[in-house]
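Chapter review. Work through the record for Aminoglycoside phosphotransferase family protein before attempting the end-of-chapter questions.
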Amino acid sequence: MTLHEDEIPVDETLVRSLLKAQRPEWADLPLSPAGAGTDNTMYRLGGDLLVRLPRTAEKGQSVRKEQEWLPRLVPFLACPIPEVVHAGTPTDVFPLTWSVHRWIDGVEAGPDTVRDWAAFGADLAAVVRELHSIDLMGATRAEGLNWYRGGGLGPCDQWIAGCLDDCRTTVGSELDVDSLEQLWRAALALPEPSGPHVWLHGDLKPTNLLVREGKLHAVIDFGGLSVGFPDAEHSTLWDLPPQARQAYWDTLSLDDPTWARARAWAIAVGVSGISYYWNTFPSFVAECRARLRAILLDAAAR
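Structure tokens for Aminoglycoside phosphotransferase family protein:
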């Protein structure tokens, strides 16, 4: 499934050619698809490895970022995160950086896998607090660590206004886009965040949260790793049930302005996802629609 105009096609033959050239001891291990997101395509390799290949040159920068910073973050996190065991280099057939990670057992967070959503929300908040407390080790909001979600809302306003208009055309009969825009604009009117920059995962949605025995076990996909303000880190809470959101809020003692800006980031990611992927990635569009419905329900209840 191609999602981007400049995407580089990947298949099993290409993956095996990369392994044969750079890690021949793995080239004959069993290989099977292990999912594909908006940024990367994954293959499970043998029983304990995962090959991770970026879809485009831009996404390749995120893979290099993971290769550089994940080994430096691992010692400070109690929760398992991906371990890079091979930093793949570009070749003639695949001119981008790629990686092999250690496989982490677990299943996606969801109603059939999480035992206690309140406990899950509190556990996720503990992971976020731990990540945000790690020293920046000289990293700044530059050189690939300046993803838009760690900045202010203002620079995104024109872009998101266009995405809201797109949503009026595509899902306007299903969602109250006007109310979503009012929430977006209310957050824009708030003072910009003024706290210190922190490490941000950037995309803590359920597909990146692995569960074992009903509890949060690991956090994966650090392609959105950045340095910035923490508000957007909380935006994926609207992908989780209300019990998880409340427990997360309580555990981190978030104030109302932070929550409003986090909700605005959730709106931004939802409407931009619908706008960009409407014709190419229906499952991701459905995920965005569900997030926006949750935001509207939550706002009506407050």
